[in-house]
Amino acid sequence: MKTLCCAGLLALALAAAPADPVAWKLQDGPAKPVKAGGKFSVKLVAKIEDGWHLYSTKHVEDGPVATKIWVADGQPFQLSDAIKSSPPETQQDPSFNMEVELYEGQATFTLPLKANAGTAGIQTLTVSASYQSCNNKICLPPKTVKVSMPVSVQ
Questions:
Q1: Contact, 29 vs 123, CB < 8 A?
Q2: Which end of the chain has fewer surrounding CB within 10 Å, N or C?
């Protein structure tokens, strides 16, 4: 009976949760065409609904799911250096009973990129992010999203 009751409460909590309290967007792409083989950067911005947070890119053993960002192979672009992020907050997380790094409100990740040699024309840059969002009561299952933007290469 206890298990059924707990499962019912969890289902109600998840039903009341937004479909995704984090909205991802690529912005600040290059203002003019990038040269093939040239470097540029874009920002990946996560807007986080009030009362929710997502975790930093720092992996913590037995902790929450760290945010991971990548540019998939097979694209005409690749990361040219480490991703930089806005500074996360450090807080005690009662869900994990440990100190964690997290973002509330907004998180910005700057991706240093390079256009592959031999690339030309309008190309689509697709960035993937996997993350977990939580509030002070529940954590939603980890999720992966893809966001894209056109980049002109000459």
A1: no
A2: N
Return all residues near 113 (Cβ < 8 A) that are at least 6 apart.
39, 40, 41, 42, 71, 77, 78, 79, 80, 125
Task: Please tell me the class of the 19-153 domain.
Answer: mainly beta
Alpha carbon distance 41, 80 (integer Å): 9
pLDDT tens digits for range 96-147: 889 999 999 999 999 999 999 999 999 999 999 999 999 988 999 999 999 9
| Phi, psi of 69, rounded to the nearest 5 degrees | -125, 135
Q: Which helix (H) or strand (E) holds 112?
A: strand 106-115
Q: Return the domain boundaries, the chain.
A: 19-153
Report the C-alpha gap between 130 and 69 in whole angstroms.
7
Convert the pLDDT of each residue in 41-84 to its tens digit.
999 999 999 999 999 999 988 889 999 999 999 999 999 999 99
Q: List the structure tokens of 7.
A: 């499962």
Backbone region of residue 136 per phi and psi (left: phi > 0; alpha: psi in -120 to 50; beta: other values): alpha
Q: 């002109």: which residue's tokens?
A: 152
